[in-house]
Specification:
The protein is built from two helices and seven strands, in the order βαββββββα. By secondary structure, the chain is α+β, with helices and mostly antiparallel strands. It has a domain of about 100 residues: START domain (Alpha-D-Glucose-1,6-Bisphosphate, Chain A, domain 4). A seven-stranded antiparallel sheet has the order 1-7-6-5-4-3-2, with helices on one face.
Length: about 150
């Protein structure tokens, strides 16, 4: 993964607690300003490579649903997933990852985002209302990590 954007934050909690929170995708709506709910698919109840979930997102009056698939899982270290468009043969349009590392009596968590949309689609805003996805995601990532820290500290 070659991220287009990465944001880090120190959290005064053990790496295992941070990792457990991040990999429980049903909790992401507690922290993310854009994703407000997720549910696992196909009887899966926890993160494992290949597991999929449906994500519900909103930005103002815009609401949309995506599917994601766990691409990489290294216990207490890395959680990486692919965002897919099932209506378009599971077109993989973005990759997100969280790296978790023990640091200074707590954890440094780094969130990464890679935009895999074709260049012509990058200013497309009809689904989400977002024209500058990099700036929007940077603010969202900072807010997500701040809310995650607040819930775990």
């Amino acid at each position: 993964m070659e991220p287009d954007l990465s944001v880090s934050r120190h959290i005064a909690a053990e790496p295992s607690a941070v990792f457990a929170a991040l990999t429980d995708v049903t909790r992401m709506g507690e922290w993310s300003p854009e994703n407000h709910a997720n549910e696992w698919k196909d009887g899966v109840a926890q993160a494992e490579v290949g597991a999929r979930w449906v994500g519900h997102n909103r930005n103002g009056d815009f609401e949309w649903t995506t599917e994601s698939r766990v691409a990489e899982l290294q216990q207490d270290q890395r959680f990486c997933f692919e965002c897919l468009a099932p209506a378009y043969d599971d077109f993989h349009f973005a990759t997100w990852a969280f790296d978790v590392e023990a640091a200074d009596g707590g954890t440094t968590v780094t969130q990464h985002w890679q935009d895999l949309r074709p260049e012509a689609m990058r200013g497309y805003s009809e689904t989400s209302g977002v024209t500058d996805r990099i700036e929007h995601n940077k603010a969202g990532m900072e807010a997500t990590l701040a809310a995650l820290a607040a819930s775990l500290e």
